[in-house]
Every structure is written in C-alpha cells, then in structure tokens.
Design a protein that fits this description.
With 388 residues, this protein is α/β, with parallel strands linked by helices. 48% of the residues lie in helices and 17% in strands. An 8-stranded mixed β-sheet has the order 3-4-2-1-5-6-7-8, sandwiched between helices. Strand 5, helix 4 and strand 6 form a beta-alpha-beta unit. Helix 3 (70-83) runs parallel beside helix 4 and helix 8 runs parallel beside helix 9 (246-254). It is globular.
C-alpha cells in the first residue's frame, strides 16, 4: 500500500486502517508513507502485523506530505520492483503513489488497485487554490487522476459521487468497489468526559464541541457557527486539534469567547481518543463544494468509534449517513441554522447519548475498518483469480 501523505495523515491513515485488518486475516502487508521528518535513511517499524516504511527523503515537508518528492518516488519505485508484490494498492494520484504503482503493473506484472478518496484537479479541491496553483499543479492533478484510474486493474472509491465519476471515465462496474470511511473501533472507545476535560482545563459542566483534522475548506462556517453558539450559550466550548484556523479565534473573540476556544495542536493519532472524550458533539462543517460531495472525512469514522453524535450539513454521503442512521444532526450550511441545530442537541443529553450509542454500534459492525478490509481482501482475491 502506497500512501502519498506522511504517516498519520490523510491517505496514510486510510491505508493503515485497512492494512491492520488485512494483516489480521493473514495477509502480508507493507504500507509506505512519506517521512514525517526528513532523513537520509528509510525507517521501518511494525504495527499490528503491518510493516511500515518511510522512505529516505530530505526535501521540505510540503513535498513529503504532498506526494511530490522525486526522492520519495525514486525510492518507492526501486522498492516495489525489487520486492515484487502481488498487489500494489495506491492511495491518491500524486506521483509518490501512482508512479510506483504504474511501473509495478507494467514491469513486474503486479496487480494495481487505485484508491480514490478525494476529487483532485480544478473541478475539485484545486478550485479553492490561488490561480497560479490551480492552473499548474491543479491541472496536473486532474489529468493524472483520470489517467491512473483508467489504467489501474481496479479502483476503490470512497463515495457514491466518486463511484459515479469512475463509471463516467469508462471504468467497468466490475472494476469499481466502494470502500467508504471506517471506524477504528479497537483504537478509540467511548470514554467519560470528566477526566479528559480536567486534563485540558475545561469545566466539567461545559458543553463541548470537538473539531479535529487539517482540511481548510469550511473554516468560515466553523468560525461563524461557534460564534453564534458561544453568544447564545455561555457554557459552550470549542476543542480543536490539527490545523489552527485564525478565523475561528477571531470570531470567538468578537463575542467575548476567545477563552472558550481550546486548541491542543497536532496530536498523534492514537492520542485523539482523549480529545474526543472531552466532547459532547463532534462538528463537521461540510458545505456543498464539489470536493466535499466527493470525499468522506476520515475523522467521521473516529467520531463514530468515540461514541459521540456528529453535527454536519446535508452534503455528500456523510450528511446522508448521519440523517439515515440518526447518529447526529444535519442542518443547512448557514451559521444560524447550523448553530441552532447544535444548540438544540447540546441541551438534550439523553438524545446525545442515544445517538452516540448508535454511532458506536455502527463503528463495531458495518462501518468498522475490519468489515471494509474484508471487502478489499475479496477484491484482491478476485483480481488474483483473473491474473492467473
């Protein structure tokens, strides 16, 4: 499995979450991700039976995490051609994933599976970028995205939107599998809020919203929504990890709630459980961008595992899931509507508990990574049969 992000970010979390359960079922799995810190040697570790490699790379972080480092690409190409894997599963279209996958397929006869979890290119996430980036790197991403999905032996897609887009590229239904976001139910479990809040300096009687992650697309909605909530409810706090959004703190300060935004920085993935445990409601602002329609945030699976309700907007598969399974609230993407729905949920602890219990049940069953990995393993076996 080749993830273009550094370990514990984005595609690397998705790859490892599947790999852990594939290894549990007896498969020999290696995950390569970008180096978290630059270094002159390839690092190796083992987690839950999965071999984890970070290829040597000395380039800046934005190249290592962006899948654009030629050093990383070269090391990965040598690795996959030397070890001759049965399957190479690439996560996203950036060169550090797809170049080794394509060469392994062409030169070593390896089965290549391409995972599609984001809408790249000018019609997707690049639509939010400055013009110079959009017409250069964004255009490149869009071309590579389409080309690699058509060339791969099979495509795993994260959402119904990307499933439709894959079909529109002429990929036959038999080569497409929808593998959504799962929950690491054995990593994160429901925990009482009191101890977590004490460690973070949050009052035990507070009403706490939690936002984790790095995606910058909807910071304006988060900022204005929390300002509305904080102005109406003096016990409301916003606990954040991951990217820092200055606009959130600016809007909170305008309503006198700057001290009620608590940011703990970029914590290690395994430590997110303590952050989520402090929360009453997990917030996923999710406006109707084409990119949002196509993706499904990894953090939603974490929230399910933590046994907490989710507040989001009616966008993509996430909004439909939350509404259909009654595991949170779905509100229009205006700060007033979103804040109103969250406030109502904050004031109904018994409803929150019921929703959290249903979320945890999904995390342990149909939306566990174990369940999804079994479907990926079936795809591998099917492709092996075709190859033979």
């Amino acid at each position: 499995m080749l993830a273009h992000n550094v370990s514990e970010r984005g595609s690397a979390i998705r790859a490892l979450s599947l790999a852990r359960w594939l290894a549990h079922d007896g498969r020999d799995v290696t995950v390569l991700s970008g180096r978290r810190r630059a270094g002159l040697a390839t690092t190796q570790a083992t987690l839950d039976g999965v071999r984890l490699l970070e290829p040597l790379d000395v380039l800046p972080y934005r190249f290592r995490n962006g899948g654009l480092s030629p050093v990383d690409v070269a090391v990965r190409v040598v690795h996959v051609l030397r070890e001759r894997y049965d399957v190479v599963h690439t996560f996203e279209p950036r060169p550090s994933a797809t170049v080794p996958g394509l060469l392994a397929q062409r030169r070593a006869g390896t089965t290549w599976v391409a995972d599609w979890a984001d809408l790249w290119g000018p019609q997707g996430m690049a639509a939010t970028w400055p013009t110079p980036q959009r017409v250069t790197l964004g255009a490149f991403d869009g071309v590579v995205q389409s080309y690699t999905r058509r060339q791969a032996d099979a495509v795993t897609v994260i959402s119904s939107d990307l499933e439709r887009r894959a079909a529109a590229l002429g990929i036959s239904p038999g080569r497409i599998r929808r593998i959504g976001v799962g929950a690491n139910h054995d990593v994160f479990r429901p925990q009482p809020a009191g101890e977590a809040r004490a460690q973070l300096g949050i009052p035990t009687d507070a009403l706490v919203l939690v936002h984790t992650g790095f995606a910058p697309f909807d910071d304006w909605l988060l900022a204005h929504t929390f300002a509305e909530i904080a102005a109406a409810e003096p016990r409301a706090y916003l606990l954040m990890s991951g990217r820092r959004f200055p606009l959130v703190e600016e809007r909170a300060a305008l309503v006198g709630a700057a001290n009620r935004v608590v940011h703990v920085g970029a914590v290690r993935y395994a430590e997110l459980g303590a952050v989520m445990a402090a929360g009453d409601v997990m917030v996923v602002p999710y406006t109707a961008l084409a990119h949002n329609e196509a993706r499904f945030p990894n953090r939603a699976g974490d929230y399910l595992a933590a046994g907490r309700p989710i507040a989001t907007n009616p966008t993509g598969d996430l909004g439909r899931l939350v509404a259909a399974e009654r595991i949170g609230v779905v509100a229009a993407q205006t700060p007033e509507a979103f804040a109103g729905a969250i406030l109502e949920l904050l004031r109904q602890p018994s409803v929150r508990d019921e929703m959290g219990s249903r979320a945890r049940e999904l995390a342990e069953t149909t939306l566990s990574w174990r369940t999804l990995a079994a479907r990926v393993g079936e795809l591998y076996d099917e492709l092996a049969g075709v190859r033979s």
